[in-house]
Specification:
The chain is mostly helical. It has seven helices and no strands. The radius of gyration is 19 Å and the shape is globular.
């Protein structure tokens, strides 16, 4: 699933650019999201300095949200269901903070809670609009990568 989602994050550039611009213009500059954006930007800076390679490829919060929105938007084409971040609230019901452990006991700590709250808001924003130049078909059907393939290699014949 993670390889498929990495690929999905790049498979519809027009939608991704549109989502990033929309999120930057209509969501991230709202005063009520200022604290969440600041927390996430601080975390991203820290990740890039202290943990090179673990901070993802997006520099901006708008870019990170757009990539995540695109992964969910295109997941039906790969016949996968993105669990996080779209279902984080449902999972959060079963995995709660440990009251005596502070931020260490929060499964959605270290910026995930801020990311997921912003993601929920971005998702609502994007759902109200349509993207010009979106490459996903209106009726989203999974891509069958094996369609028309003849699997007739010696190691496959041995397992039939």
């Amino acid at each position: 699933g993670s390889l498929a989602m990495f690929w999905a994050g790049w498979m519809n550039a027009p939608y991704r650019r549109w989502a990033e611009a929309l999120v930057r213009r209509r969501l991230l500059n709202q005063p009520r999201w200022k604290a969440e954006v600041w927390r996430l930007q601080s975390l991203r800076r820290w990740q890039r300095q202290m943990r090179p390679g673990l901070g993802g490829e997006e520099d901006s919060v708008a870019g990170l949200l757009a990539k995540t929105l695109l992964e969910e938007h295109m997941s039906c084409r790969l016949a996968v269901e993105p669990l996080l971040p779209s279902m984080w609230r449902r999972i959060g019901r079963y995995v709660n903070r440990r009251p005596d452990a502070g931020s260490e006991g929060d499964p959605f700590g270290e910026g995930l809670r801020s990311l997921y709250r912003l993601y929920d808001a971005a998702r609502r924003l994007v759902a109200k609009r349509s993207s010009p130049g979106d490459l996903r078909p209106t009726r989203c059907t999974p891509i069958d990568f094996n369609e028309g393939m003849v699997w007739d290699q010696p190691w496959e014949r041995a397992t039939r």
